[in-house]
Amino acid sequence: MTALIQLSGITKILKGQEQPRTILDGVSLDVHAGESLAIVGRSGSGKSTLLSILGLFDRPDQGSYLLDGTDISRLPERRAAKLRSSHYGFVFQRFFLLKHLTAAQNVAMALVNGQGWLPRRQRRAKVMAALEEVGIAHLAKNRPSRMSGGEQQRVAIARALVREPKILLADEPTGALDTETGALVIDALQSVTARGCSLILVTHDRDHAARMGRVVHLEAGVLTEQVAV
Ligand SMILES: Nc1ncnc2c1ncn2[C@@H]1O[C@H](COP(=O)(O)OP(=O)(O)OP(=O)(O)O)[C@@H](O)[C@H]1O
Fold first, then answer.
1. Which among 15, 17, 21, 48 is the best mutation to test ligand 1's pocket, defined by most ligand atoms within 8 Å of the CB?
2. Phi and psi dihedrals of 227, rounded to 5?
3. First vs last C-alpha separation in the chain
4. Facing residues of 170 across strands?
5. Which residues form the ABC transporter domain (predicted)?
């Protein structure tokens, strides 16, 4: 089966300095639909840069990026933005929730911004299904200030899921949480693979990484290892 994502020879060079610096050096990686993958590596090894390229926030200088067999490595920004909103979900270390809105309203914002107009009842059903999926439907009417960090991060995951992405990219989503709360957030992230969504997690936490189907290591921009766990 063709992989959903096929990166081949991805190279990113940082210019504008005296010496151009290679941040990603010929990274090749396949990710299948419904697969979970952790990217680990030291600080500065290029993890976030790779995630930015995967999420179409940045473009490689060399190499190709195929999505479902189509080369998207050099898409103009307008088309990249469209694809980002239809195919990708993002979760970051910070939750970026709007404080004056409830959990349900925060999740609904992603629908208002991304999918045009949806009848109210349909919108509500999608929002509740997403909150349910991450185990916090009972907090739908709560504002972020009344929630723990782990609950807020799960609202952020529900907000990413409500558009039914094919790929969920998570950059240190447990970085601001204690171990126990972080494990709950990893559970919520893992659950997306059951519906065929691929999960790509950047983490410093070896235990969280080991819970993914596959772990890849970046070292100074080179993908050094792929270990089945
Ligand atoms: N816009 C930029 N300007 C200068 N240096 C940059 C820029 N973007 C990335 N870098 C450098 O590229 C290297 C890789 O950065 P990147 O953020 O991808 O690493 P990382 O593995 O995600 O690190 P961390 O774990 O600390 O988040 C680092 O040395 C970083 O300082």
1. 48
2. -115, 130
3. 21
4. 91, 201
5. 5-229
Cβ atoms of 175 and 95 within 8 Å: the answer is: no
Please tell me the distance from the alpha carbon of residue 81 to that of residue 42, in angstroms, as a whole number.
30
User: Which residues sit opposite 36 in a β-bridge?
Assistant: 199
Closest C-alpha to ligand 1, atom 18: 46
| 7-44: pLDDT as tens digits | 999 999 998 778 889 999 999 999 999 999 999 999 99
Which CATH superfamily is 5-228 part of? P-loop containing nucleotide triphosphate hydrolases (3.40.50.300)
Give the predicted TM-score (pTM) of the model. 0.92
- Model ipTM? 0.91
The atom of ligand 1 lying closest to the CA of 202 is 22
Bridge partners of 7, per DSSP, are: 29, 65
